[in-house]
Amino acid sequence: MPYDPHREDYLRLSLRFAHTLDNQTPDAAEHAFANFGRRFARERDSLPQTDSDRAFRLVADAAVLIDYKLPFTPPEQADDIAVRGQKLLSEALSLDPNSPDANRMLAASEQPSFDAFYSYLKVRVDEVRSYCEKQRSLMVQDENSQRTSLAMNITMRPYMRWIASMASNAVICGRNREALRLWAKAIRADPADEAGVRFTVALALTKLEDEQGLDKLVHDCRPLPTSRDGLDPWTLLCRAALAYKRYDLSAATAALKVLISNYPHACAALIRQRELPDGVFSRLATPSMSEDELIVAVSECTVLLQEGEEENGRGPFGLWVADQAAKLASPWELDEVKEAQRQVDEFLAHEREEDQSGNDEGGSRR
């Protein structure tokens, strides 16, 4: 499950609150903790917390604005939301200057390119790892081993998000082998791969046309608690892309059929191929096997769908996927498919108008 910023804020404060109850009787502690959820929802500031905790709350609020609201906001309101998010991150750094999340998220908006952002992350990754490991070493080992394990996990999450962001940017920048090296660091730091770095690595292996590597990745990840044995949308789209590259359309179609059978409204999503901004906090938190998860996966697979870009900004594979999705749609999906195709046609017509406008003015659009 991807990292949910407000869920993590809840966990951080619940651990700190639990420590304040250690000297109370079991009944008193149980009664006090029973009211924790209400206090968190209504009176969060009344709970025990440090400047680091307060900073993380600001980071969580910024993540909601930038990752979950900004991509779906009308253009005339987008600048205001972006500015609000940056102000929250700046305020977080005033409370906790070492916050890896706040520093990374703010840098994402300040660096002039993906390459520059990747370089920023690479220069500081060892520093972030050392910082998080130091925080982990400060965790008090108490009789509640489950509580200690969760606390140590949470202290390493900023490093895991840093690695995940590095891997994602590595693929975008064409540094696919670097993404593979980052996978080794990620799984060593978090054997459960809560950040889902393996999905990014699947994209890198596909870009390298390493089908055996993808098979090995799926095999090695089977023991993970969240493993779906290669039936996640990232891996299925990667398998389809690899089969398409070797002109095995039967195998490519078979992978799409599995994807469509596993996910609701899949055909419409595969036709729209909507590209979302990468989450600056982490990959967007979506329920497993949901339509939202598929939309996020399709967006991240843009590097495959647009490869060898042809007409209308889609590559041969992306055009083929959209065509097959329309053909494979069930009768109950036909109205959704028609609406998706109408939206794509409308978008492309708008793009052509803007291109023509730019040409008429003697300019060009990036």
Topology (SSEs and partners):
Blueprint: H1 5-20, H2 26-34, H3 36-42, H4 51-69, H5 75-95, H6 100-110, H7 114-137, H8 145-172, H9 176-189, H10 197-207, H11 211-221, H12 233-245, H13 249-262, H14 266-272, H15 291-300, H16 302-305, H17 316-328, H18 334-360
Helix pairs in contact: 1-4, 1-8, 4-5, 5-6, 6-7, 7-8, 8-9, 8-10, 9-10, 10-11, 10-12, 12-13, 13-17, 14-17, 14-18
Give a structural overview:
With 366 residues, the chain is an all-alpha fold. The protein has a domain of 139 residues. Helix content is 71%, strand content 0%. Helix 8 runs parallel beside helix 10 and helix 13 packs across helix 17. The longest helix has 28 residues. The radius of gyration is 22 Å and the shape is globular. The two termini are 35 Å apart. The model has no long low-confidence stretch (mean pLDDT 90).
Shape: globular
Q: For the report, how would you describe the main beta sheet?
A: none
What's the total number of strands?
0
What's the number of helices? 18
Q: How much strand content do the residues show?
A: under 5%
Poorly predicted runs are none
Radius of gyration: 22 Å
Q: Look at the helices and sheets and give the structural class.
A: mainly alpha
H/E series, N to C? HHHHHHHHHHHHHHHHHH
Q: Assign a percent range to the helix content.
A: over 70%
* Average pLDDT taken over every residue: 90
Span between N and C termini?
Answer: 35 Å
